[in-house]
Amino acid sequence: MRFTGFTFGAAAMVHLAAAHYTFSGLLIDDKLVGEEWQYVRRHDRGYMPTFREEAATSDDFRCNKGAGSGADTDVYTVKPGDKVGLRQAFAADGIRHPGPAQVYLSLAPGSVKEYDGSGEWIKVSQDLACKAGLSAKDLQTDGWCVWDENNISFVVPENIPEGEYLVRAEHIALHGAHEGRAEFYYACAQVKVMGSTGTSLPGDKVLIPGVYGVDDEAINFSIWGGKDTYPYLPGPKVAPGGTIRGSADGSSAETATVPVGESGSSENEPPAGESEIPVPTSTKGTAAETTSAAPAPSVPAGEGGSDESVTTSAAPVPSVPVEEGGSDKSVTASTTATKGTETPRPVCNSRNRRRRHSL
Questions:
Q1: How far, in Å, CA of 345 to CA of 340, rounded?
Q2: Can the keyword Secreted be found in this entry's annotation (predicted)?
Q3: Are residues 172 and 186 in contact, defined by beta-carbon separation less than 8 angstroms?
Q4: Is the preceding omega at residue 318 within 30 degrees of 0, hence cis?
């Protein structure tokens, strides 16, 4: 059989799109509204990821390259309690990279169509691990809440101000994070919130870029070498009124709402029914205290033909305060290290992108 260059090129594109992704559709209560890119800002990056250096410094990290304005994007009106999601573009056949997902909101000072996202952002949703009895293999594959799902969603909180917002859905793929090559997939929708009662944005505020630093442990965490927990929250705590799905060790797949306190703030408590492993916040690379570590495996650097190896840091065994009423009580989370027979997948660079997606 004779294959043309077009045939090979098309096949490669389909294969690549199955692993890489972006978001183009707006879901309301799990139903697509309008057309692709009607309410989501179209960008110029296609389904290719961003890496940590650009994430830390570039304005493109807000809504992606070429999406600094939403003049050609419509605005959809939502109300508190609505489930709002950003759906994958192209095949929309599900996220197939391991890692957490989160949703950020930024209130436009006027029309969101003219807003560049340079103001403050809050996190309103966090998806972690959702598989009970999470193993090292699960952490590397389908143990994450958003694995095989084709959207990242949140529920509009009651306690935010009315107005027009950028909704930024983001997934961080960790398969290359041991080499400093975590992959960021994200896009922004434009919505108008009506019927809410807040007078100011609740919770911790961040700027984008600036939400992650290149040395943050949450985005440099190695999922290889036998680790079976992800003891971080990337970026800020989830704001009061927002939600957390899953847990550090997958023991709970429930979705819990962060309580709204009298002062408009709250502790970032883990979901009810979760194991005693807390989920500390990683801000500017601050991680949980460690008491011991598993051996550090040597893993391939992922550069084609190179004999060099990269030594990855081992899974920390966190002993962190339980954030309940200022208690000094701490809980130690134990991790069981396997012999580290797993070989990390190569990161998505120009030399090995096609090779990795053929695995």
A1: 13
A2: yes
A3: no
A4: no
Task: Please state, for a pLDDT cut of 90, what percent of the chain lies above it.
Answer: 65
pLDDT beyond 80 at 156: yes
What's the pLDDT at 90? 86
Other CB atoms within 10 Å distance of the CB of residue 254: 14
The greatest distance separating any two alpha carbons of the chain, rounded to the nearest whole angstrom, comes to 71
DSSP SS3 for 154: strand
* DSSP characters over 4-42: -HHHHHHHHHHHHHHH---EEEEEETTEEESSTTTSB--
- Residue 97 · residue 171 · CB < 8 Å: yes
As a CATH number, domain 14-288 is 2.70.50.70
The order of strands in the sheet holding 316-321 is: 290-293, 316-321, 330-332
First and final CA of the chain: distance in angstroms? 24
**φ/ψ (deg, to 5) at 15:** -65, -45
Q: Compute the CA torsion angle 191, 94, 219, 43 (nearest 10 deg).
A: -50
Q: Are strands 238-245 and 255-257 parallel, antiparallel or unpaired?
A: antiparallel
Q: How many CB atoms lie within 10 A of CB 283?
A: 19
